[in-house]
Amino acid sequence: MLTLLSSLLSFLMSGLPSFLKLFQDRSDKKHEIELAKMQTEREMQLLAAGYAAQQKIEEIKLDEIKTQTEAEVRTSTIDAQKAEMQALYAHDVEIGKGASQWVTDLRASTRSILTLGFYFLLVLIDIGTFTYGMVHGADFNDMANQLWDEDTRIMFAAIITFHFGGRAFGK
Question: What range defines the domain where residue 54 resides?
């Protein structure tokens, strides 16, 4: 049960940025609905005053403004994402200035090295425990249950779901 819960939690945490974008999108759409309501009220006022020709001109202007606003919102969102990535890359370049290539490569592979380190540590502990159990005549089922206990399953599931869940939400 804890394995399932930790897997779900890790997967959800890796998707948190995408979830926050959903809220931003909702607020943008709410703003657009408010603008549409205001436009409708203005059109009704113009019709009541008998300005039908003026209404057509206002509709054209409003459509123009909507189109321009949508384009600006899309452009600004894309520009913000590009600017964020460029700032991150520029920061990485600044940190790496003056360092040799192997140091730069090592710094770039930190996440992979840590993941592989924990994996090989788990494998080493399991091999050592299994060998010790076989030498001392332990029952295979007891060894298997001790090597792959609930805590190990939770940790393994959390690492895998966070790593691959983050990649899924990133696309």
Answer: 20-99
Say which residue the tokens 């436009």 belong to.
Answer: 39
CA distances (Å), origin 45, targets 32, 34, 39, 55, 133: 20, 17, 10, 10, 87
CB 41 within 8 A of CB 58: no
Indicate if 82 and 126 belong to the same structural domain.
Answer: no
- pLDDT one-digit tens code per residue, 21-80: 777 777 777 777 888 788 888 777 777 766 666 667 777 777 878 777 777 777 777 777
Are residues 94 and 31 part of one domain? yes
| Closest residue by Cα to residue 169 from 17, 5, 21, 25 | 17
The domain boundary, picked from 69, 99, 129, lies at 99
Do 31 and 90 sit in the same domain of this protein? yes
pTM, 2 dp = 0.41
Helix 52-96 with 16-49: angle, nearest 10 deg: 160
pLDDT in tens, 104-130: 788 878 777 877 788 888 889 889 988
Cα torsion through 100, 101, 104, 107, rounded to 10: -100
